[in-house]
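Table S2 (continued). Query chain:
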Amino acid sequence: MLKVDKGSIPQPLQDIHKDKGIRIWEDLSKTKISLKRRHDLRNEMLVKEQSGYCVYCERNIVDLEKESSIEHIKPRSKFPSLIFDYDNMVVSCQSRTSCTQIKDDQWDALFIHPVLDDPCLYFDYDMESGEVIPKRGLDSYSQSRAVKTIEILNLNEWKLKGARKTLVLQMRHIQKNEDKEFENFQKFPSLIQTYRDSL
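Corresponding output:
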């Protein structure tokens, strides 16, 4: 999971805030202008804040329209006052087996918030299985938060574990050949950093 550092509110969201015709999220689908604002907001958050990666599983999002959506960390249905709160918005992939599609309207106070919390303090990787695991040495409350977040997002579904395991094998091959350049990999940036730190 990525840590997202929010800057100033982007212009598309400022325009949405000013538009008196937009009161609920669904209003952003009613006109070409509002659809464009939502698209531009999603694109700006994905590129500037998340470097093109899904905030939760860290897959590289290539096709903005088909592969991503604006995710409300605290669900719109349970936190209507946060619908247009910038700190509650990130971009997530549209995988049917993890992330936004699985999380849906689930919310738990233990959930690790990628804007307010630093996920790197909670998660680590099992380099053999490709699993996301709670970081060693966490107190019981922090461990519970990590476990709950992994569960809610289904971060250890078989495709993700397999992709992570494959990436570790590729990095080991590169390292074995004395070439430690991993910049060409386009997925799982925190896994790459964790692997580098272990060298």
